[in-house]
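Protein data sheet
==================
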Amino acid sequence: MTKKAEWPRKLRSQEWYGGTSRDVIYHRGWMKNQGYPHDLFDGRPVIGILNTWSDMTPCNGHLRELAEKVKAGVWEAGGFPMEVPVFSASENTFRPTAMMYRNLAALAIEETIRGQPMDGCVLLVGCDKTTPSLIMAAASVDLPSIVVTGGPMLNGYFRGERVGSGTHLWKFSEMVKAGEMTQDEFLEAEASMSRSSGTCNTMGTASTMASMAEALGMALSGNAAIPGVDSRRKVMAQLTGRRIVQMVKDDLKPSDIMTKQAFENAIRTNAAIGGSTNAVIHLLAMAGRVGIDLTLDDWDRCGRDVPTIVNLMPSGKYLMEEFFYAGGLPVVIKRLGEAGLLHKDALTVSGETMWDEVKDVVNWNEDVILPTDKALTQSGGIVVVRGNLAPKGAVLKPSAASPHLLTHRGRAVVFEDIDDYKAKINDDNLDIDETCIMVMKNCGPKGYPGMAEVGNMGLPPKVLKKGITDMVRISDARMSGTAYGTVVLHTSPEAAVGGPLAVVKNGDFIELDVPNRRLHLDISDAELALRLAEWQPNHNLPTSGYAFLHQQHVEGADTGADLDFLKGCRGSAVGKDSH
């Protein structure tokens, strides 16, 4: 199955380093000030290690150590490694939201690859937006590329209870509001949430996107679940360094791997693991970069009948550490293959097919990776609902939702934006109860700007104090992959561009019917048309900087929220030399 290309052959790095011209001596000579011997520029593969390490991206804080292991692998395979620091969109620190900078990172990294003498790339990632941004960039340039992630944190524990990063942040916060936990206890629990290097230890967006990279075939088999501090994570990094050199020799590129079949494999894998709704928006954007026609309909079609068999928070009870010990993602992919839900011949970065990579793996813990007849939910894929409230679609994660709310009609309680929500939600005079539907506007790609993870609105304290832990919530925002609840997200068109969400009023009734994929605002067509005709935008528009560029060019959530001028933009990976 391995793709082969003529070898040896002249690589693109030789446009910079090969020969005796003035321009070549300029490029090569300056590199030698780092002590590189002359024979390293002899035409061997130059590998760019694109490192998203940053002290302000704590999930990726250990990636410099992993980069050294990648380098060792590249050297061993006869390549020439060069570590390159790249834009690191931290989920923890970036304001207004890291999602606004995913596209900027992808654009910057695309040009980093295109403009420098790399023959292949190792994408060293971890935190939520770093994985999609680097894959998007690599797909646009289409040089041989491979992903290695930093891995999840070890389990957290607080007073004998497993603590999932993110998931328990939301849980404990609601407990404080309900009077079930003191603020001092919440602060004590903080120390248990992030106790080692790595990304979230739940099936949050970081672990989901690591799984998506592996399911797409863009990472070596078994990469997704190895804990960040496990020695086997270092081994994976070194093996990845070895593999990228052969990928360059074989000319095995993202466009060879990221096919429609690969994306369908990833969608089904996301359903089986109970993955983040954020995977929807990222895979749509990635597909756009390789010119693959992937839509929300593909998400519903491919994921609808796939059971969620990974018993991890926020849908289940375990964490990524146990998932790794049970056998990790290869076991899940094998299960899909056995059920006839896998394109077995999809090519991976190993040069082998997806099925050849997983056919012999063993499930070591059937309480973590469940048998199909004991699945968390039999229909675990991301649900796409449509109707007059979401003509272009909205998404919901059934494995994290309350079954009794999947068919629900309720009175709308409307928040015009996140600030309006924060100002009202703790007011005991707010006219709301558990039968209502919470609606928040102006939090989409243009409206926030950047589409923040605020869709999992916390419930009002007076409802929490009744022992109620879930209500239907609807917005054009996103939700953290670590969060849970009956939350309708990514409502498109978004409110900020005049989508129907913009004209929902307090007291309107809304129907959510997940089995029939319906989201309906109970007003007449004439009334809806009148409201839309009278609508005026009420959010501030940026006037300069990247925020202005983003607001002018970002597309809707239903197509991946990429910048409109970047989709399907693969071009020459070698530019003109100006020297």
Remarks:
- The longest strand covers residues 407-415.
- The CA atoms of residues 360 and 496 lie 50 Å apart.
- DSSP finds 20 helices and 14 strands in the chain.
- The chain has a mean pLDDT of 94.
